[in-house]
Amino acid sequence: MLPFDYVRAADVDEAVNLLAADPSASYLAGGTTQLDLMKDGVLGPERLVDITRLPLRGITRSDGALHVGALTTMEELAADSAVERALPIVRQALLLGASTQLRNMATVGGNLLQRARCRYFRDPTVPECNKRDPGSGCAAVEHSARMHAVLGVSEKCIAVHASDLAVALVALDATVHLQGIPGRRSVPLTQFYRESGASPDVENVLVHGELITGVTIPMPPAAAASHYLKVRDRASYEFALASAGVVLVTREGTVEQARVALGGVASKPWRCLEAEQILTGSPATEETFREAASASVQGAWTVPGTAFKVELAQRTLVRALRTVSGVTP
Amino acid sequence: MSVVETAPLVGAGIDRVDGALKTAGAAAYPSDVNVPGQVYGALVQSTVASGRIRSVDTLAAEAAPGVLRVITHHVTPRLPDGPMTALGASPPAPLQDDRILHHGQHVAMVVAETPEEAAAAARMVAVEYAADDALTGLGDARAELVENPWGLDSDRGSVAEALATADVKVSATYTTPDNTNNPLGLFATVAVWEGGKLTVHDTTQWPSMARATFAKVFGLPETSVRVLAPYVGGAFGNGLRVWPHVILTVLAARLVKRPVKVVLTRPQMFTSIGHRPSSVQHLTLGADRSGTLTAVEHRATSPVAMEDDDYEPVAASSAVSYACANVLTRDTQARLHIPDPTSMRAPAEAQGNFALESALDELAVALRLDPVELRLRNYAENHPGNGLPWTSKALKECYLAGAERFGWSRRDPEPRSMRDGDWLVGYGMAGVTYPWYAQPCNARATVRRDGSAFVRSAATDIGTGTYTVMTQVSADTLGIPLGRVRFDLGDSDMPAAPQAGGSGLTGALATAVRDACERVVQQVLDLVREDGESPLRGCRREEVTVVDGRLHRRDRPAEGESYADVLDRHGKEELTADGTSTPADPSTLGMAPAGAFGAKFVEVRVDADLGVVRVARVVSAIDGGRILNEKTARSQIIGGTVGGIGQALFEETATDRTGRIANATLGDYLVPVNADVGDMDVVFVGEPDRATPAGTKGVGEIGLVGIAAAVANAVHHATGKRVRSLPITLDDLL
């Protein structure tokens, strides 16, 4: 048996204290990834601190932003009227991101922290995984790698960050709010994640015990159009081979503002600032979109199984830009 | 030769008699079975593909909470192989020595009080291996090759001469990957020893074979073994053999003297119960300018496990699918360090048809001829091998009815010519000639004094509708209302039946059930032969009809009486008779026994930029002989079509060079979801088959075959790109 303690935290302070005091403890929210990984022997926390009763659930609106409690479920966020009206990119990312059953369990905070879907990371009988066991190597690079990442990766790890929601949120310049022993801090989501780089086991800036308490999503300008496009083999119930989240303000055929992010192809939700620079101030044309797409995949690192993703990511981004701008080739 | 009865081609599509039980969760699948005192087994599997076990350290596992026993090859007795069957023997017993023949091979079983304790302790078993270089690739030149494994290779005329003079030739290599059956129900076994008697609740498609196997392996008389499988949560061929872990479960129960239950995990479902093997196929066709085939050459290689057999004649059907004077087919198996390949819905046909029907499409393009027309020009009116007339063949009607329903005439033959916004639209089709397969079968029918009937056979219903269809056949033959007939199956104590497999069960079982029911009717007539009180006195069978439980004279319906009346008057509680069916003997039949035929028409949509492929609709026109239940047969075809879409677009078991399966979960191994299944149209054509009185031909597998080729052909029509390697994914089309 793999015994572990289970405690339910009464408030945020208690939760943070419980975790900070125990290096082998983990938070438990929806559990849709965590429990699978425990059953498969990938994670072995000795204590689970259940945070599901903490008052971190719900959506409020102020100062042109949406404030989403970390324990709000994916389904609640997708069904929110403001999201439905003004944030199609978020709603689409959520609906394409998981089945209804999962959306009813999984939380927004948990979604942002979901672990890699790498077949080698998730099988402890494979010895080589730098994410699971730093320094042990990367079996994915050696073997079947079609699902893996091409951006922000190296021979040390090519695992993809599989969240759809996070792609939409980095495109929207969302901020995550954290609470830990030193206190509270807020981090732009674009600076929250780390590329796999030298330490694939470190995926974000959280220190042990720090809890995501909420996310602030700035509302895009009223004139903006947004879209999330997810490309995959089957029509549903699969992680993205490539995805693109775009927010675009165009006026009289010219792009005034652009926010662009890619998913399914990178070790973290991939914001494409170079592509945005190319788009901003340029005519909303197929040519501009292709130029931006080309910039979005600069620095790609591929293995034979993943090479197609460099092309697929660009075509996905071009299609998403076409969709929001109404431009046809 | 029996005379085929005049009856409608398509029987009433009544609802499944077990539908309410299943939807309410009240049907006990093998994993739902629990018996008092049971304990649980968990398997330890090899992490190398070839070599020897250097050591097994079981101390930690044995000391773990709840553990009763750790079984390794050190403590396992030598066990004999199971008996030969129509499909070959089951794999050898497990844990017989220290050799490793594939990644995922069982190397130990932990038995514990709870499943969680067993699984946790199984992780503590430390196995050290002396690994050897494993042969895992089909192209590995070191692999031992088995030529013509089933004696089914064909040589007709001279292919070399015909190809030398052909006006048009197409020649290409097609590949299909390993596929994993993946029934939804996890395979489960509960083994119970009571003295010298063994009862096994098991996920099997063949209880009679399983009983014979347990008897032989454990040295018991068959009468001391009972195998139960009243409900099976799908199998697709996985349940046709007694797998090593099942033997191990029975052995464990004997060693710990408690009932033992083992439920495979999903990853174990990929390595423990067989899979459809990959194939490399070289296909060459020659034709004259009019489109008449002058040569068919089909060479296929598939892998097989190191010490196992698998019936998988991939190329064989190409010899009998079209009228062609010059034919050569070759099947070769390469022995590799891989988990056992085995039948997966439409074994061999699923792979071979993809190559043959893709090549036909390539020939149609080369000849600038319509693909349907090309097939009609090479139609085999008689069996191309022996020249005999088929017992039934309505493939032409399949082509014509399918094309009509699909709207094939709207197809512009030019690739990339049809478009709907971002989507390139493609129409593709394929023909199917499915092999005939038949086995002997037995059934028992009882009519009771209350007028109800109980009919049974040791067959299985793996979701196909056997319960329902055989209830119908029994009710029809006995003339007793459906609601008063119970058909039971899935118990090896019942009369022996063949497997639910090879598309052969319905024909064999329906014939045996009819025979048993007819014999009961005859018993009634025998009983009243000299009964002065009976209006049926002295009647011969053909003079009598049974309706609503009442037998009456055909010519004078007013003269008759009910089963209940007869049994009551004669003081009988019941009348019981056994029935049998024997397969037609092709050597004396004077005809070539036919399997099902089909034509598949598919519309695909391919995103012009993104390469995403979606199947928008499928028309399946099927000659399945007489269809006993329109609804369950249609469901079979639709289910097969979904499997075909999986084979065409999604399914690929990915194996690392180490021999480890890398995508052994349902999140990573993709099968179609509802959103991938477009409009499914099914039409049944043809006539009752002349090989059996029931007139049926099996429809369990033909639904799958032809879909992969039709999809590939449609993708070519949509995009101009010919994809010869399955599955077809967007990276092929960028």
From TrEMBL, chain A:
UniProt cross-references to Pfam families, sorted A to Z: CO_deh_flav_C (PF03450), FAD_binding_5 (PF00941)
All copies of domain FAD-binding PCMH-type, residue ranges: 1-222
SMART domains named among the record's database cross-references: CO_deh_flav_C
Signal peptide: none
PROSITE patterns noted in UniProt: FAD_PCMH (PS51387)
Record's protein name: Carbon-monoxide dehydrogenase medium subunit
Keywords, in A-Z order: Oxidoreductase
Organism, as annotated: Streptomyces daqingensis
InterPro entries, per database record: CO_DH_flav_C (IPR005107), CO_DH_flav_C_dom_sf (IPR036683), Diverse_Substr_Oxidored (IPR051312), FAD-bd_PCMH (IPR016166), FAD-bd_PCMH-like_sf (IPR036318), FAD-bd_PCMH_sub1 (IPR016167), FAD-bd_PCMH_sub2 (IPR016169), Mopterin_DH_FAD-bd (IPR002346)
UniProtKB/TrEMBL annotation, chain B:
Chain intervals with Basic and acidic residues compositional bias: 566-575
SMART domains with a match to the protein in the record: Ald_Xan_dh_C
Domain Aldehyde oxidase/xanthine dehydrogenase a/b hammerhead: 24-133
Segments for region (Disordered): 553-587
Signal sequence range: none
InterPro entries found in the cross-reference section: Ald_Oxase/Xan_DH_a/b, Ald_Oxase/Xan_DH_a/b_sf, Ald_Oxase/xanthine_DH-like, AldOxase/xan_DH_MoCoBD1, AldOxase/xan_DH_MoCoBD2, AldOxase/xan_DH_Mopterin-bd_sf
Listed PANTHER family: DEHYDROGENASE (PTHR11908:SF153), XANTHINE DEHYDROGENASE (PTHR11908)
UniProt protein name: Carbon-monoxide dehydrogenase large subunit
